[in-house]
Design brief:
By secondary structure, the chain is an alpha+beta fold. It has one helix at residues 2-21, and strands at 32-36, 44-52, 55-64, 67-78, 83-90, 95-103, 107-114, 120-126.
């Protein structure tokens, strides 16, 4: 009985460590808080993302002139190679996509496309809690 419990605990500990080390597990680099570079006007977008496997979910805010302009929800997928695709739905009903990749541990480099608009480059930086 004692050996069986130890084997079970060892398996749980090993799986937990493996999941944390996996790029698509709980330790996924996409998980966390992100924000666009601050503009002098205070405008920008922040995201709070969680991951489960390759699935990404989250919430966020859009600011204009330091005032909350809209809320948003995020769904998407991350890949083991660091690429990702996120679909953003604003509280107003507007949608956008953000396709990109990791640059280092604390930067997302991608293309933001608002529905019906031309794509534009957009960087997000990890926010340390």
């Amino acid at each position: 009985m004692h050996n069986r419990v130890l084997r079970h605990l060892s398996a749980v500990a090993w799986l937990s460590l493996a999941a944390c080390a996996s790029p698509s597990g709980p330790g996924s680099p996409l998980a966390g808080s992100w924000r666009t570079a601050p503009l002098p006007s205070g405008g920008g977008i922040d995201l709070s993302l969680v991951t489960a496997g390759q699935a990404v979910r989250g919430t966020g805010h859009q600011y204009n002139l330091q005032y909350l302009a809209d809320t948003l929800t995020v769904i998407g997928r991350g890949q083991a190679d660091g690429n990702f695709r996120l679909t953003v739905t604003f509280g107003s009903g507007a949608t956008a996509t953000y396709n990109g990749k990791f640059v280092g541990r604390d930067q997302l480099d991608g293309t933001w496309t608002d529905a019906g608009q031309a794509p534009r480059a957009l960087l997000f930086y990890r926010q340390i809690q």
